[in-house]
Amino acid sequence: MYRTLIDTKTFHEQAVSEILEMNDTRSVDADAFHTRWDEIYDVIYMSLSDGEFKLLYQVSVESLRQTMDEFAVQGDAEAGARLWLSKYDKADLYPEVKGVFSVLSERYPIIITSNVDNDDIGFAMLRGKNLPIKAIITSETSKSYKPDGKIFDDAISALQCQPDEILHIGDSQSADVLGGKEAGMITVWLNRPPVKKLKQGIPVPNYEIQSLVELLDILSD
Q1: Do residues 219 and 107 touch, judged by C-beta distance below 8 A?
Q2: Same domain, 79 and 102
């Protein structure tokens, strides 16, 4: 959802700078702090054992707390996480989303799967856009995070078709490319500029695009 449909701009970077500033730790490298926070965030939710589930809000707080500890930043991790998440009140869809969805929905059922809490601010904005979709499956509803197979199985059940008949599009190499491939789907990696290299251990996607508009060419046959 985020960075695929919703433009997150520089909200996370802004939040990191403000967190460091409000805790009077401007000497900490903000980029290094941001990168490490992202890494710990992914480790926490992706290392949950079978049957174990945490809301992403909880993951946000815990990952920020661990990052602050590593960088010797004193302060309230929950207040910092709330500051970050509040930024998404100003988020909006990428300009091409509505047009692409309008065209594709005339030929295909569309389902959104997202690692997001049901009370997420950006998720509320997305629902209010009334996009022509069949369903939205969140990690909270599924009690499963991409790349885990269950959330993909839920999507397959909702679409009532075979996995290899599904085109899964997403920006995350692990959640979307790896997860979609392991689920048996056709994968499209949305590698928005600035483009990134595929990480070691991530399977090559069936397609790589830089804008959702390119889906119209892929599905034109």
Answers
A1: yes
A2: no
